[in-house]
Amino acid sequence: MIRFVVTLLKNDWNQNGYNSFLVELTKYGLGKKDMASNLNLFSAVQANDEGVLTFIEGNSKVGDSIELRFEMDTLVLLHTCPHPLNPAKDYPKKSITYQIIQGAAVTDHDYCMNLCDENKRGFKNNEIYHLGGGYS
User: Do 128 and 134 touch, CB atoms closer than 8 A?
Assistant: First the structure.
């Protein structure tokens, strides 16, 4: 099962991504200790030689997309909060569209699984987990 929880701007209550994630996690009895690293999919930041970070304007365009794949039950939290380095004077209000589809079954020739040894190990651990054997 794949469950998507989408935090969209439904009113004028604007908050940061961290707190948005905590609000959503709480709905599932989870908290700070359960929060994994976030993945910023459509913003870009560049570091110069001195380590100074610069927000890259216009990195993503309307219609840009990404496909996420999950081989086990996963809780995904999405939010549309602006990147902390976004210099916009007004809180950017962006909408998203998401689609959930059933992927094809994994075969011995699966591109993702065979990309590297780490992926092969991950798929094997997932198989063992689903058989009730824990992780190797």
Answer: yes
- Give the contacts of 36 (CB within 8 A, at least 6 positions apart): none
In the DSSP assignment, the letter for residue 32 is: G
> pLDDT digits over 22-70, tens only?
988 999 999 999 988 888 888 899 999 999 999 998 888 888 888 888 8
Listed residue (95, 68, 85, 86) closest to 3, CA to CA: 68
Closest CA to 110 of 119, 102, 101, 100: 119
Dihedral angle, C-alpha 5, 11, 13, 19, nearest 10 °: 0
Strand-strand pairing, 53-55 and 45-47: antiparallel
Give the whole-angstrom CA distance, residue 50 versus residue 45. 14
State residue 78 phi and psi, 5-degree precision. Answer: -115, 145
Count of residues for the chain? 136
Distance in Å from the first CA to the final CA of the chain: 23
